[in-house]
Fold:
Amino acid sequence: MCRWLAYSGSPIVLEELLYKPAHSLIDQSLHARMGVETTNGDGFGIGWYPADHGEPDHVEEPAVFRGIGPAWSDRNLRELAHCVRSPLFVAHIRASTGTAVQETNCHPFRFQRWLWLHNGAIHDFPRLKRDLVLAVDDSLYPSIEGSTDSELMFYLALTFGLRDDVPGAVERMAGFVETTAARHGVADPLQMTVAVSEGEQLWAFRYSSAHASRSLFFSTSVQALRALHPDNPVLRRASEDTRVIVSEPLGDLPGAWNPVPESSYAVVREGRDAIRAFRPRAGAV
Structure:
């Protein structure tokens, strides 16, 4: 499996979350506490929207940087994280579930202005892969670069209307995977925590067919945390609309982290966030 984080708020330097916290994502690449594997060294990736996103002449597509080595020893990642600032970014460290360790299999995956990353797996994926791939819209299929179930889930969600209705498209994707698996006699096929963004909003999903999903947490509001920890310098710098979603907490600050409930999703936009139920929708393409 994998570990990931997603950030939305005032622009910060990426290393503030990737390297500086006590249990940062880089620390988790070696010492994950809640993942299936302790070590996540099969590649990494970050995707970010520029600090001027939304301004005239801003870059429409997010930037992506990926590598196939372990994140903890990549000097280019450290250099990049030291100088890149962003108001919305995602980061991922990979532990392969069987597909090749190659750059095109590293998260996040990008299509136009959309970013997608995933922790989990489609059970018995080689058995289901042909039926799932054939369901991808013809116009989207040429953009698939890798061989992972994660990327295929992204393109299925795009096929099901991700650009118009994110929660609905992910629910239809999950339902289609489960329906396809049922035809092949594969039980409990889907395990996922997913982050997706188009640069303005951030969605995070937690679901598994067996209702025993991998861990996922969201940060408490900055205002509430300042009341709990008035002397914390990091909290004094953070904006009111700052939110972080993580596979596992970045530290042990009391009151800072809340579990995303089973079979639910969170949506964040400019500090206004909500958690809603996630229900796969069965159906054909």
User: Anything to note?
Assistant: Residues 179 and 282 are 6 Å apart (CA to CA). Residues 166-183 form the longest helix (18 residues).
